[in-house]
Task: structure prediction
Amino acid sequence: MRLSRRATVAVIVSLAVAVVVGGTIAGNAQTPPPSLAPLSAEQLLSNLITTAETTPPPSFSGEASSSVNLGLPQIPAGVGGTAGTGVMDLLTGDQSYKVWRSPDGVRIANLLPASERDLVANKTDAWFWDSRTQTAKHLTYDAAAMQAAMRAQQQSATPPDPSTLAATIVRRLAPFAALSVSSTQWVAGEATYTLVLTPTSSTTLVGSVQVALDANNWVPLQLEVFAKGSDAAAIRVGFTSISFGPVDASTFEFTPPVGADVTTSALPMHGLDEVDDNHKHDAAPLTFGTGFDTVVAYRLTSPFPPEASALLPYSGPLASAIVADTASGTWVLAGAVPVSQLQATVAKLP
Result:
């Protein structure tokens, strides 16, 4: 399986967005839970998907936070970037964000102690800004071609945002889970229903996924992922405050400061979904299995860093990762499954 160029861009944007799907504040423990009309899990799922597919989607602005505890070992210096700048920071602690979403685009500001990282995306281009390094990455694309490609795939041409990403996750995992409804709760000051997805797989390390849905707008406000046998969420992401209403279109425009280091690239729009016959994307990940049992394999294009080798094999409460050498190269395999499942997948690699 190869990722198309369009899918690659979706992954880039989704990586930035995925950290902001839900929240850490579930309301004051002394405040009684909201009284809401009973709804079945199927009704909640239907409301969530219908809202996510609505054009235009609900507009809002708010603040969000994430808390991740995957039981990762001590990360050696230099792996994932320096402190406060690397991807590993998103996987090993708490983060704060500001979020804006409307039919015009999505903007996410990752608030750091002394700097800020931003994703600003609209229907024609996207910016990735790091104030600490004063660097900006600019991605441009043809709006008409992008929209046509998205329509062909029955997807929205609006850039991904926290609520629609959460809806996509739930929709794709729902066929592999038993659905139920938990107690109502307050999230970001809003009354919410709690939809629970319990994997039917006996292999996955995931115990449940719980999504808090705003009872008025059916926007996901909080996403929690629990490991099997644990009452504490390994991942909790979501809104701590939110305001529904119009967002000025200028919010989704970005002009880098004078003196910033700017790199611009254009997304080729021709052949978005064609297989690359020239094998220029041999490093694209392969996937095996379905639902919660999905295993992702990445072929390395450069030697594996010695300091990173000390981290693998990794066996955590919610995921595992290994390195494997085959005739086609060195691969990193990861998934929400035990290490034994990853080892069994090595035989399927090219």
In short: Confidence is low (pLDDT under 50) at residues 1-29, 80-85, 150-159, 270-282. The longest strand covers residues 233-244. The radius of gyration is 20 Å.
